């Protein structure tokens, strides 16, 4: 399953919506995503699984779309 992860680059700053980033990862569970990203020291705000329709929308409308491999 592909998940969309919303995060801030650093744990030290207060989250600000305008600086929120997103990445896409393939995993079985949200917990697996969080474990894989723990070493990057991101402030993970939200992890959501993408339906087939949402995934297709992201592929079609997001020129920066790519699935991260860890």
From TrEMBL:
<dbReference type="InterPro" id="IPR009907">
    <property type="entry name" value="RpoY"/>
</dbReference>
<keyword id="KW-0548">Nucleotidyltransferase</keyword>
<keyword id="KW-0808">Transferase</keyword>
<dbReference type="GO" id="GO:0006351">
    <property type="term" value="P:DNA-templated transcription"/>
</dbReference>
<comment type="similarity">
    <text>Belongs to the RNA polymerase subunit epsilon family.</text>
</comment>
<comment type="subunit">
    <text>RNAP is composed of a core of 2 alpha, a beta and a beta' subunit. The core is associated with a delta subunit, and at least one of epsilon or omega. When a sigma factor is associated with the core the holoenzyme is formed, which can initiate transcription.</text>
</comment>
<dbReference type="Pfam" id="PF07288">
    <property type="entry name" value="RpoY"/>
</dbReference>
<keyword id="KW-0804">Transcription</keyword>
<dbReference type="GO" id="GO:0003677">
    <property type="term" value="F:DNA binding"/>
</dbReference>
<dbReference type="GO" id="GO:0000428">
    <property type="term" value="C:DNA-directed RNA polymerase complex"/>
</dbReference>
<keyword id="KW-0240">DNA-directed RNA polymerase</keyword>
<comment type="function">
    <text>A non-essential component of RNA polymerase (RNAP).</text>
</comment>
<dbReference type="GO" id="GO:0003899">
    <property type="term" value="F:DNA-directed RNA polymerase activity"/>
</dbReference>
<protein>
    <recommendedName>
        <fullName>DNA-directed RNA polymerase subunit epsilon</fullName>
        <ecNumber>2.7.7.6</ecNumber>
    </recommendedName>
</protein>
